[in-house]
Amino acid sequence: MKLEYDIIVVGGGHAGCEAAHAAACLGAKVLLITIDMTKMAEMSCNPAMGGIAKGQIIREIDALGGYSGIVTDRSMIQFRMLNRSKGPAVWSPRAQCDRGLFVREWRRIIEENENIDLWQDNVNELLIENDQVTGVKTKLNALFYAKAVIITVGTFQNGLMHVGKTKLEGGRISETVSTGITEQLAEFGIESARLKTGTPARLDGRTINFKVLEEQKGDREIRRFSFLNTVLPDQQLSCYITYTNEEVHEILRKGFGDSPLYTGVIKGTGPRYCPSIETKIVTFKDKDKHQLFLEPEGWNTNEYYLNGFSSSLPLDIQYEAIQKIKGLENVKMYRPGYAIEYDFFMPTQLNHNLESKKIGYLFFAGQVNGTTGYEEAAAQGIMAGINAWKKMEGKDAFILKREEAYIGVLIDDLVTKGVDEPYRMFTSRAEYRILLRQDNADSRLTKMAIEIGMASEERKKVYFEKEKTREILNGLIKNTSLPPEQINTFLKNKGTTEIRQKVKLIDVLLRPEVTLSDLFFAISESIDQDVKSAYYFNEIVESIEIESKYKGYIEREKLLAEKIGRLDEIKIDRGIEVDSLLSISTEGRFKLKKYKPETIGQAARISGISPSDINVLLLYMGR
Q1: Which residues make beta-bridge pairs with 172?
Q2: Which of 233, 301, 229 is nearest to 79 (CA)?
Q3: How far, CA to CA in Å, does 555 sit from each of 88, 270, 472?
Q4: How many CB atoms lie within 10 A of CB 480?
Q5: Helix (H, G, I), strand (E, B) or coil at 514
Q6: How many CA atoms lie within 13 A of 514 on its CB side?
Q7: In angstroms, what CA-CA distances link 332 with 94, 98, 201, 209, 216?
Q8: Is 497 exposed, middle or buried (0-12, 13-18, 19+ CB in 10 A)?
Q9: What Cα–Cα distance (Å) separates residue 553 from each residue in 57, 433, 567?
Q10: CA distances for 514 relative to 79, 319, 409, 527, 550, angstroms
Q11: Is 359:218 a contact under the CB 8 Å cutoff?
């Protein structure tokens, strides 16, 4: 018996689920192989989706027809819009999720797709012929053949967990390790290295004294991550804030002698932006406390996640230190924090479609590319799934540009710059933040999803209805004039200057004291009832207001993006003898040979290649 598929996805995490579902939606026959079918898209660390820049990524995935946003909405237990005190370019949605419900929703979605088969096993070998992948071999000696393979094994590849001096092989606590692929790919010249991440202890909520803690409630208005009309919770669970103290720090210092971080046992590089608690007290010696968040893991569990207290210290040290934290004096643990080291593959060895440069039809997505975070993994997953299908069909790759999506920034950073620590997305990594807002992700990307074939009929209907509504409301504010007697009372109440003659709504809106929702309330009789009752009405109103008030900044960024984007259209001749271009710096020549950028724009974004190096290239190419 020869089991054949179009695409095999190895790994059932966030990247794997999005990859499998995307390829299957496009018509590919997909096999998803995972070590544990009860842990589909498991939230290995904190039980939350979104956050700074990450929320934008989830909305982009949804706009492209992915499912991370839908699953987040269905499992949401708390919602907050972060950065509201700052400009709309950096407003970022974040949701606490029911961890168990999140997994069950993803598994239901995968199992409902008739184009996806599931197989519970561990892949330890790739089948490769003539530098092209043809299938996989599993630990059970099962052979599966395919036209393309997507590797999304997360932290499981040669994973090693640490709790003090205790070391356990595995990709997640109590789960087996994946082996074989790293060693095999090394024979084909594919480089790998080690990274490290960690997670805190999980606590029994029945033993937490919430009365002495600071409560952090969700926003009064719950927003959707999906652009579809998903069902949202009618109530929310609170998080709680507490702090470490000097006594806690002293206890933690006692364990440094047995810490794998400080004894040299851990070799992998950890995430700089999400340090362990031991790293915090060493790096920030002047701080006598660090903020911690107690986050609920679900509606029907007592389990709490101690955000901010990741650790690989010995079990007894963790326990002793945690019980000196306010509100946790009598707390009991469900399991300790631990660090994990794992293999990743240098992403500079990939093309922008996430296909290996050395082995044809082999794609990589998620933490195996050096990223950290569910959102970054899911984004790579949907792109790998789409591109594996496109490659199989002989179609052009689907590449998002930096000015089109945070997903474009993420992938371009990975394949052109590489990583020397776990890569985490921030709004500061994007040059065109005002263009890449969370509110306009569907306007930016859903048309592309329709063209590819990723958009469902429901999504198409909502998208076209919403764009029509946007056009109607834009026309209303640009063409409607109000006389003084109709608007002055409103303006006076808002603390802004009254008018003496008719003024268009758009001119009133540009006043900082005025919001578009207030204006529409003042002229509500002018708005069609069907438009006002649409579930997305408030979101469109907010988006139109942003585009109106920030029009100058938006237009300037568009012009800049177009100017710089032209460099991405200039292909670098593969026949160039880089070593002969002595006017390029030594480092510049080395980086050009190592990363082999396809365009001038990509070359310009590689660290170590200077503007003068780019000028030499342009001159050589007659530009």
Answers
A1: 175
A2: 233
A3: 15, 39, 21
A4: 16
A5: coil
A6: 23
A7: 28, 21, 10, 12, 22
A8: exposed
A9: 22, 10, 22
A10: 26, 52, 34, 18, 14
A11: no
Residue 44 burial (10 A CB sphere; 0-12, 13-18, 19+): buried
Q: Letter for the amino acid at 103?
A: V
Q: Which of 378, 396, 370 is nearest to 194 (CA)?
A: 370
DSSP code string of 387-404: HHHHHHTTPPP----TTT
On whether the CB atoms of residues 80 and 237 are closer than 8 A, the answer is: no
Residues 306 and 326: beta-carbon distance below 8 Å: no
Q: Of 4, 15, 18, 25, give the one whose Cα is nearest residue 390.
A: 25
Q: CA distances (Å), 127 to each of 183, 185, 359, 390, in order? A: 14, 11, 11, 21
Minimal CA–CA distance to 383: which of 81, 64, 154?
A: 64
Span 235-251, pLDDT tens digits: 999 999 999 999 999 99
Mean local confidence (pLDDT), 545-556? 94
**Helix ranges, 284-373 (H):** 315-322
pLDDT tens, residue by residue, 7-40: 999 999 999 999 999 999 999 999 999 999 999 9
**Cα 326 to chain center, whole Å?**
33
**What pTM did the predictor assign?**
0.94
What is the full DSSP assignment across 549-606? HTHHHHHHHHHHHHHHHGGGGSBPPTT--GGG-TTS-HHHHHHHHHH--SBHHHHHTS
> Cβ contacts of residue 34 below 8 Å, gap of 6+?
11, 12, 16, 40, 118, 119, 120
Asked if the model's pLDDT at residue 146 lies above 90, the reply is: yes
State residue 623's pLDDT score.
Answer: 58
What is the amino acid identity at position 273?
Answer: Y
Query: In angstroms, rounded to a whole number, what is the distance separating the alpha carbons of residues 309 and 244?
Result: 9
Calpha distance 352→110 (Å, rounded): 26
Secondary structure tally for the chain: helices H, strands E = 21, 22
> Do the Cβ atoms of 13 and 21 come closer than 8 Å?
no
What is the token pair recorded at 620? 């050589």
Q: Are 155 and 339 in contact (CB under 8 A)?
A: no
Question: What token pair was written down for 82?
Answer: 């972060």
Residue that is written with structure tokens 């670098």 in the block:
572
Q: Is the dihedral of CA 240, 243, 247, 251 positive or negative?
A: positive
The residue-averaged pLDDT of 419-426 equals 93
